[in-house]
Design a protein that fits this description.
This protein is mostly helical. It is built from four helices and no strands.
Length: about 160
């Protein structure tokens, strides 16, 4: 089985001279193992990027909420200092601060969506080269006559794409 950084070209294929279906199946099983490992690594990396984006956005939302809470407290303190704490100016001021806070939170959510879409659109996963393996097996199968072709077809039926 090819190790990390190794290709199917680097593997000893002396078993393929013998047209046994077990040699072909072993080759396909090696490919399937490498494919599964690559798929798991790619999915893990993808989930990690999404998690980082979510954590960053959540922290930004907490910062926005904290900043506007401070702004609201400061406004109430200033109104109280001016003797206007029990006037109609308070609800109007608080509504304006709340509206600004919601706009900032909405903008943060929009940025998160843009980031996630960027992660999704840039997702370029690499997997073992199936075409190289199928070409190799096709060549080996055709040189093995009818039994070789049958063995290759049986081996390819378990291949992941």
């Amino acid at each position: 089985m090819p190790g990390r950084g190794q290709t199917y070209r680097d593997v000893n294929y002396s078993k393929l001279n013998n047209s046994s279906s077990s040699a072909y199946s072993a080759l396909v099983n090696n490919y399937n193992t490498a494919y599964s490992q690559a798929k798991a690594a790619n999915e893990s990396r993808y989930q990690q990027m999404l998690s980082i984006a979510n954590n960053t956005s959540n922290q930004r939302a907490a910062d926005i909420t904290n900043d506007y809470s401070k702004q609201s407290s400061s406004a109430m303190s200033n109104l109280a200092r001016l003797g206007m704490a029990n006037t109609t100016v308070v609800p109007t001021t608080m509504t304006g601060i709340e509206r600004s806070k919601q706009a900032a939170l909405t903008s943060n959510a929009d940025e998160l969506q843009k980031t996630k879409l960027g992660i999704i659109s840039s997702k370029t996963d690499s997997y073992p080269d199936a075409s190289m393996l199928t070409s190799l097996l096709a060549g080996a199968g055709s040189s093995g006559g009818q039994s070789g072709i049958s063995a290759v077809i049986q081996a390819l039926s378990g291949m992941k794409f």
